[in-house]
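## Example record

The block below lists the input lines for one assembly entry, exactly as stored, with component labels intact.
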Amino acid sequence: MKNKHVIVVGGGPVGTLAAYRLALAGVKVTLCEAGMNCAQDLRASTFHSPTLEMLHEVGLVEEIIERGLVAPLYHFRERSTGEILEFDLAEIDDVTEFPYRVQCEQHVMASLVAGKLDAHENAEVLFDHRLVHFEQQENGVTASFETGIDITTLKADYLIAADGGSSTVRKWLGVEFEGFTYPEKFLCLSTKKELADFIPDIAYVNYVSDPSEWMVLLRVPSVWRILVPAKESDNDEHLLSDTYKEGVFDRLINDSSVETEHRTIYRVHQRVAKNFSHGRVFLVGDAAHLNNPLGGFGMNSGIHDAWNLTDKILTCLTDGHDDALFELYDRQRRTITHNFIQAQTKQNKAILEHGEEQGQKMRLAMMREMHENADKRREYLLQQSMHSSLADATAIV
Ligand SMILES: Cc1cc2nc3c(=O)[nH]c(=O)nc-3n(C[C@H](O)[C@H](O)[C@H](O)COP(=O)(O)OP(=O)(O)OC[C@H]3O[C@@H](n4cnc5c(N)ncnc54)[C@H](O)[C@@H]3O)c2cc1C
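Predicted structure tokens for the full assembly:
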């Protein structure tokens, strides 16, 4: 397959892994990333167990586990009462070799994979290459990249667009990105302060429910990350100020002196592209869909897109191009994005923020009932770990 060529646009977690899987299968791959290296920002930090199985397939899982934290437990916490519902992924160890989440920053994985790709004989990694345009021919795709000094043009059999939420490829395709943007902003603070010294029995992953200030508390090897909602009307300068940070930590652990490593504001969207497959050009990851981070599904579902798509590309490179296979990619991944990722992330947010009193009581009762009932708890664990969504997508014909 070395005379077959695939261009992957975007050196995030989804693009690097899609490219690596194709290179390992013997395809010539060019990964083009606009930045001078893989982005180092703090976004995804949870690898769910089906994703760990995929990393295992390409020989990366040990290195990710080594660089991360193994988290079999996660907590749903009620902030006002201190009630904790603990979930243990060990309960699904009959369906997976990896019955846990791994807490590791996405940039650690993207940089690791980009390095391996660069060293691979089938692959080329081109940083400082921003896709500016592409055209499709009957048998391939031509794409143009702006570098610091010129415009370079590459030709390939297929192009995978893993160029993130603002995808240039999606915009050129003119594909609608249907959905909405939440009015509130999300503020992410990180600190080296050990929260376990203040919050007894805290897990590495904690969803903390509260009507006025819900939180997600996540441990990664270097820091604790605290995600809180912020009002639309609060300006960014205020949200990033010491005063605001002091208030968050004062309310959380009664210590406003905590020092932070990062303070980042995110706008959060629920959006899905109208079609993921366009001739010989395909959308994956954030280029195809965006969702809120509650549950840790964004990057994971993007990696699941990449697996589904690269299966089909490998079949077509061997047996000849078949539009029907790529229509199936669109049906499988877009349906599951709507039915599970979008629906579940909206529900995860509603559970944390509560809303009016009646709804709050109902949601709490639902969480408790699910936690106490072994069958319901198992169903929930299979859902939240993304095993169910992966199986449901594969079942779509
Ligand atoms: C606060 C927060 C927490 C999150 N936590 C989680 C979590 O725990 N688990 C989870 O699964 N998800 C999480 N997510 C979502 C996750 O970060 C994204 O889903 C993930 O980054 C998507 O990866 P990607 O490779 O598709 O896109 P990106 O990571 O956005 O990468 C796109 C890449 O394309 C490059 N690019 C853009 N345009 C061009 C161009 N024209 N030419 C060449 N290159 C280009 C960019 O420079 C970038 O490197 C979180 C998100 C946020 C905001």
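The mean pLDDT is 95. The pocket of flavin-adenine dinucleotide is lined by residues 9-15, 32-35, 39, 43-46, 106, 130-131, 162-164, 168, 188, 266, 285-286, 293, 296-300, 302 (CB under 6 Å).
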